């Protein structure tokens, strides 16, 4: 099936879409060309490159890049390929250096991407303008400690790309992204599934929670208290840029404060810096999760039982879904902690994260990956190529008028709905239909 045929199968409101979008190589080629070279992509947290010379190696789509803090203190993103013959310039995943030397012919670049040394330059080349062979740099901006980059020189500023969704990123970090740090290098692992399935799920799928994650919930991971005031609920949010989120709530009357599960000192800092409306959104909540288009997912939640004690412990995880092929994805899982939190609490938070959302997590992560893999697996077939999937949930439910939601963006209190899925694929489809 050709790409125009695949895109033509989408319902106008993205309430149905062809399953082949999760298996078709031509679709992935178009995504890499029209989304991953044009959008702002998250690459790292600034704490990973805290001092001059620090660097990490990452990917923008399938393009290898170096995220480096130069001697001038600026963070830059540059292509991780020698401009001579294209070999991988830096093979380490992280480190600190002032220069990168190509292992093939020893061309040497400084940590801003400028070509500084070419062996035998005069006898080999005669007159040689080294500046014409500097590493290609991507536009780079930082928001709340999150490092983004884009290859598109004409792309809108990052602030416009984030739009109203920046409010939810502010809420995620208590109004101060510089107060956080990554607790060690991110976990890296691969799954046999299409990259979009993780993004759409993190973006707001409350429907799957009581079913796909029944075992950990019934096992008491979030406690067993029954207030008798009704069941949990949720609110989904989306913006025109395709960014999506969900806030899940405890039963009414539970009296859970905002930023539950963090040490008292950190909660006080959040209260001093976060907007008052943030506390109205997060009060009585048990989870905030979402996705920044196209592939940065996040979750902040509280685990009541971590395996060692029953004191509620919060964690914040960032998740990158990087396509390897249509049916294989590399996942990067970042655990973030407040810099000033006690070391013992940080360790508990990281444990809560990796036991539920990480490479070896036996709870939540294994449930989700099994379903992502199964959707990708069943999409590989002749009948699957003719099959459309249903994304219409909630489309016919009434939306509250007026809506008293204190946060920005469009929102509905229909936790079991696919509003965020439709918003995500509306943006996805707009990118894919643009001329290459």
Number of strands: 21
The residue fraction in helices comes out at: 10-25%
CATH homologous superfamily of the largest domain - what is it?
Answer: Naphthalene 1,2-dioxygenase Alpha Subunit, Chain A, domain 1
Shape: globular
Please, could you describe this protein's structure?
With 436 residues, this protein is of the alpha+beta class. It folds into two domains: 41-154, Rieske [2Fe-2S] iron-sulphur domain (Rieske Iron-sulfur Protein); 164-433, Naphthalene 1,2-dioxygenase Alpha Subunit, Chain A, domain 1, CATH 3.90.380.10. The protein contains 13 helices and 21 strands. It has helices spanning 3-8, 25-34, 121-125, 158-162, 166-172, 195-202, 209-212, 214-218, 264-273, 276-282, 343-354, 365-378, 419-433; strands at residues 16-18, 41-45, 54-60, 63-69, 75-79, 94-96, 99-101, 108-110, 115-117, 137-143, 146-150, 180-182, 187-191, 233-238, 244-249, 285-292, 296-303, 313-325, 328-338, 388-390, 410-412. The strands form four sheets. Strands 12, 13, 14, 15, 16, 17, 18, 19 and 21 form a nine-stranded antiparallel sheet that branches. Strands 2-11-10-5-4-3-6 form a seven-stranded antiparallel sheet, with no helix packed on it. Strands 7-8-9 form a three-stranded antiparallel sheet, with no helix packed on it. The longest helix has 15 residues, at 419-433. Residues 395-416 are annotated as: Disordered. This is Aromatic ring-hydroxylating dioxygenase subunit alpha. Keywords: 2Fe-2S, Dioxygenase, Iron, Iron-sulfur, Metal-binding, NAD, Oxidoreductase. Belongs to the bacterial ring-hydroxylating dioxygenase alpha subunit family.
């Amino acid at each position: 099936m050709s790409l125009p045929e695949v895109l033509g199968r989408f319902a106008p409101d993205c309430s149905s879409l062809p399953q082949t979008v999760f298996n078709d190589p031509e679709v992935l080629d178009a995504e890499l060309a029209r989304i991953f070279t044009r959008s702002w992509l998250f690459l790292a947290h600034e704490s990973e490159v805290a001092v001059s010379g620090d660097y990490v190696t990452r990917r923008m789509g399938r393009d290898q890049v170096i995220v480096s803090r130069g001697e001038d203190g600026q963070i830059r993103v540059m292509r991780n390929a020698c401009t001579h013959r294209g070999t991988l310039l830096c093979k380490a995943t992280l480190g600190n250096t002032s220069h990168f030397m190509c292992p093939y012919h020893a061309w040497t670049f400084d940590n801003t991407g400028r070509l500084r040394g070419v062996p035998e330059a005069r006898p080999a080349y005669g007159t040689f303008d080294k500046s014409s062979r500097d590493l290609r740099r991507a536009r780079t901006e930082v928001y709340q400690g999150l490092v983004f980059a884009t290859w598109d020189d004409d792309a809108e500023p990052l602030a416009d790309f984030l739009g109203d969704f920046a409010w939810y990123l502010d809420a995620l970090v208590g109004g101060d992204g510089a107060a956080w740090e990554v607790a060690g290098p991110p976990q890296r692992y691969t799954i046999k599934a299409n990259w979009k399935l993780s993004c759409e799920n993190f973006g707001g799928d409350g429907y799957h929670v009581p079913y796909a994650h029944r075992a950990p919930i019934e096992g008491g991971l979030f406690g067993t208290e029954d207030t008798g005031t009704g069941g949990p609920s949720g609110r989904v949010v989306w913006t025109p840029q395709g960014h999506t989120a969900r806030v899940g709530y405890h039963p009414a009357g539970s009296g859970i404060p905002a930023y539950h599960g963090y040490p008292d000192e950190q909660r006080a800092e959040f209260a001093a810096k976060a907007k008052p409306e943030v506390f109205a959104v997060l009060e009585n909540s048990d989870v905030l999760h979402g996705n920044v288009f196209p592939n940065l997912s996040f979750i902040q939640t509280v685990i009541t039982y971590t395996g060692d004690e029953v004191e509620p412990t919060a964690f914040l995880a960032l998740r990158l879904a990087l396509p390897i092929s249509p049916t294989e994805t590399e996942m990067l899982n970042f655990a973030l902690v407040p810099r000033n939190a006690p070391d013992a609490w940080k360790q508990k938070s990281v444990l809560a994260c990796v036991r539920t959302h990480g490479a070896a997590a036996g709870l939540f992560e294994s449930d989700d990956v099994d379903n992502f893999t199964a959707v990708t697996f069943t999409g590989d077939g002749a009948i699957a190529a003719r099959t459309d999937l249903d994304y219409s949930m909630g489309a016919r439910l009434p939306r509250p008028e007026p809506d008293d939601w204190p946060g920005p963006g469009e929102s509905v209190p229909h936790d079991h709905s696919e509003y965020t899925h439709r918003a995500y694929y509306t943006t996805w489809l707009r990118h894919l239909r643009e001329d290459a």
